[in-house]
Structure formats: structure tokens, C-alpha cells
Amino acid sequence: MSVLTALLSVSDKTGIVDFARALQALGIRLLSTGGTARLLQDAGLSVTEVAEHTGFPEMLDGRVKTLHPAIHGGLLARRNHPAHMASLAEHGIATIDLLVVNLYPFEATVAKPGCTLEEAIENIDIGGPAMVRSAAKNWQDVAVLTDASQYADVLAELQRDGHVAKATRFALAVAAFNRISNYDAAISDHLSSLQLGDEGEPQRSEFPAQSNGRFVKLQDLRYGENPHQAAAFYRDLYPAPGSLVTATQLQGKELSYNNIADADAAWECVKSFDPDSDGPACVIVKHANPCGAALGADAAEAYAKAFKTDPTSAFGGIIAFNVPLDAAAAEQVAKQFVEVVIAPAYRDEARALLAAKANTRVLQISLDGVKHDAPDAWSRGLNAHDVKRVGSGLLIQSADNHTIAAADLRLATQRAPTEAQTADLLFAWKIAKFVKSNAIVFCGGGMTLGVGAGQMSRIDSARIAGIKAANAGLSLQGSVVASDAFFPFRDGLDVLADAGCACVIQPGGSVRDDEVVKAADERGIAMLLTGVRHFRH
Fold it and tell me: Which residue in 13, 84, 253, 287 is the catalytic one?
């Protein structure tokens, strides 16, 4: 395709001057609008303004400038269609062969605190999306660029071949339609979350009347949970910093569906421990549940303690660290069969040790940009919402990002925990949040001792946690326990006491709270109430 005319109209001016200069050096005629035209002219480029090209001035404060047959006819005419070309000739319309457009910054505008409805409306682009759709529809003849990241590759093809390849034009058109889809979805999400009150002031709901999920495919997977299921891995259009989808795989086999699901559980759990305030942490996950977790003086100690909780379940597990992996920790990890290792960084010696386990998948996820003390979930590297698919529908909820400190706890019993026990209770509470309900987690000395998960009865979870500890040869005398929800009867508490539990942290809220607290006092157990439960289904 011989490119003769390019129309440039961009909100984000990144790289546009250099790109336009390179186009002009290739003999390509430049059309442009408003601020883009002025920028190019100030840079010494020869540019024809769209108003001159169409013979019709911009109007309505720039709301109407490119909505004209001279623009859309030039974009939409099929070059191999004689009637189309005759129509252009009859009306004196020139073809436009390359379109460079990025849109008004609607998403950035509405993300700003205090954005008004008027500001949002004025940042809804009309002419830009219309041109992009026209050019993308006619991709056989027109190349359409919607992002500065596309400039270099297109320019390289033009300089090398004198035209943009057909496959490139199609890929650009797909990217253009995706951009329009994302743009329109952002507008729909924002506006459908607003309702005008009696005074005309918009009131915003956390959940819009229509939800438009936007995800980008990262890779196809060999299969899903089972070999007969097809699967693919997608990320949010704007992923939170430090989330699993930002991972770089350094070595190992391709990640499976189950690997990704378990890796996310391990990473989200270990990421909840701030390396600066909590210290090094390690979490081992098997089948979506933490089977071992611990804090340590370094990564090696944290791993050794986490592994000790349940060595049997740790076989073939997912191991996540919140600090860089060093040689001492990597040497221990490399002794076991491990599916996935995750850390924010790896020392050279650690990489060399793990390289000997060629099939082990090694993921690096940077924690740069993650602010553990930030007020908003996104800056803490967390999702704002959770989504669960049901038959022909979605359940959407605010994510369980609730955190708790010692000052938030309420003592319910006569006996109070020591400072060390309170620290262990808070540790246990963090782990219980990531264990499938019903969850019972025994801890002590900054490590898990027994984990009971996913049972229909809380008392069964308590018994299983005790069995797990016994199988690992761990004593529960003087241990602390976190329960993700209240105890409906005292029998669950009695099981914990019989196992050696000294302190319990639980939400409270049962109609039998008094009975449970009385049982704790009878058994000499300290009990702290959080007022918040952590069901995880």
C-alpha cells in the first residue's frame, strides 16, 4: 500500500512530532487538527489543517471538526471498488491512507478525585472514535494507529517497504476496535454508576447499573482444571502493581491453570506481610489453601518454619516469599519437589541453584510501587472487587481487603493474651483470611502449626488442624488459634482447648457468644474478638 496522506489528531502528544517528521521525510502529506496541527507547525513541519481540507471550520468549541464527508469518505472508500473511487473523484475527496488518533483522556479524567459530571462529559471523544472506526473498518486500505507504542514498528515498515503490511494493518485495526471498546466501556461504567439527585447533583454507586469487564489475554493454556477443559489466562486492562499478572517467568515449564490459581493464592497471602514492618515471610500453598506459613529472620528461616507445618502437603506446592530469595533459602527449596517459586527478586546464587531444577517454574513479581500503608486498594497491589461467575451471571463484591491491628481487637475473656501471643494471633488472623472456609489455623512462634480448611463443619476443621499438627510432630501446647468466623457452639472451642490452645482470635457475633466466652473462661483461654469475619468460598 502506498501511503499518500496521513491524518494526525492526538490528545497524547508523546512522540508525535518525531513520527510526523519521519512521515514527511517519506513524502507523506500531513493533515491535522487543532492543538496537534499547531504543535507540528511550531516544529517546522508543513501541515494542512482539517478545516482547510474540508472547507468547513471547526465549530461548537471543537466538538465538530472531523465529522465531515471529506474525512470519512477519504477513510472509508475502498480503493479496489470503482464506484467508491468514482464517488470520491466526483466530490473532490482525497483518500486518507494513515490515521493517527488517540482519544480524549476520559479514563484519566474520571480517575481524578473530585471529577465533576461536566468534566467527564467534556472528555467524551466523538470525532476521534468515529474516525478510528472508519479507518479500522477499511483496514484493507488504511493503517490506523491509536497508541504511541505503535509508531516505531509502522515507521520501520514504511521506511523499509514503502507501505504498511496487510497483516500489520489488520493487527492495528483489531487494536483500534479494542481501544474503542475499552473507551466506551469506561464511559458506560462511569456514567451508569451515577444517579442524579433532586438537586441535579450526581450520586455515585460502587456498583454501576452495567458492568463492562475488560481483560487482555496473556496466553492460552494447555488445559483448564482438568485436561478436557480449554483455558486461557487474562489480565485486567489496568492491573494493580505487584499483582500476579505482572509476573516475569524466569524459568520452568509453562504455567498451568491450577498453577496460576494456586500461585495467586500464595502470592496474595505472602504479599499481605509488609517486609519492612513484618519481616521476611514465606507461604506454601497446595490446592488453593496455605498448608504452611511463617515469619523469619530471613527467607531461609521463614521457609524452614513454613515447611515444617505440613511437609507432606508441601510436596508439589507453590512457595511464595515477600523478600528477595537468597542462596540459603534457594538451597532448601531446591531439595524439594516444587511446582512454582515466587519472589520479588532473586540473588544470582539463588538463580543458579534453582536452575538445576529445570522444570520448576520461577516467577519474579516486583513489589515496586506497592504501598502497604496506602488508603486505596490499588496502590496496595490489591483488587478493589472480587468476581465470581454463576449461571449466566456474576456476583461482584468489594474485595476482602480489611486489615486489623492490635488496637482494633476486643478482649472478651477474663484472661488476656501476652504481647507475644497477640502478635501470633494477628499473624494467624492474616493466614486464616486466605484459608477456605470453614478455617481454623493453629499458630505459634510466628508460624502455622496446623491448618484445617474447607470443611462443612467448623468443629471438623478444628479436628483436622489438630491432626495435621500431630502428623508433622508439632506440639499445640500454648498455641494460638484463628477462626475465620464465629463459633456457633462451644464444642469447637473445647476441641481447641483439648489440643492445647491458649488463645483464640475470632469475629464473634454468634447468638451463643456468651456461651463460647464462658467456655473459654472455664478452659483458661484468652479470646480476642475482631468484629469482622473472613469467609473464603
Answer: 287
Tens of pLDDT, residues 27-41: 999 999 888 999 999
For residues 436 and 453, the answer to whether their CB atoms sit within 8 Å is yes
Which of 3.40.50.1380, 3.30.70.120, 3.40.50.2000, 3.40.50.300 would CATH assign to domain 5-195? 3.40.50.1380
The reported pLDDT for the residue numbered 405 is 92
Q: Which three cell numbers stand for residue 413?
A: 475473656
Q: Which of 13, 137, 253, 371 is catalytic?
A: 137
Distance between CA 207 and CA 273 in Å, rounded? 29
Based on the residue annotation, tell me whether 137 is a catalytic residue of this protein.
yes
* Residues in the chain, pLDDT under 50: 1
163 as an active site residue: the answer is no
Report the pLDDT value the prediction gives residue 213, as an integer from 0 to 100. Answer: 86
Q: Would you state the pLDDT for residue 2?
A: 53
Query: Which residues have a Cβ under 8 Å from the Cβ of 12 and sit 6 or more positions away?
Result: 102, 105, 148
What is the topology classification, in CATH, of domain 240-386?
A: Cytidine Deaminase; domain 2 (3.40.140)
* DSSP per residue, 485-511: S--SSHHHHHHHHHHTEEEEEE----T
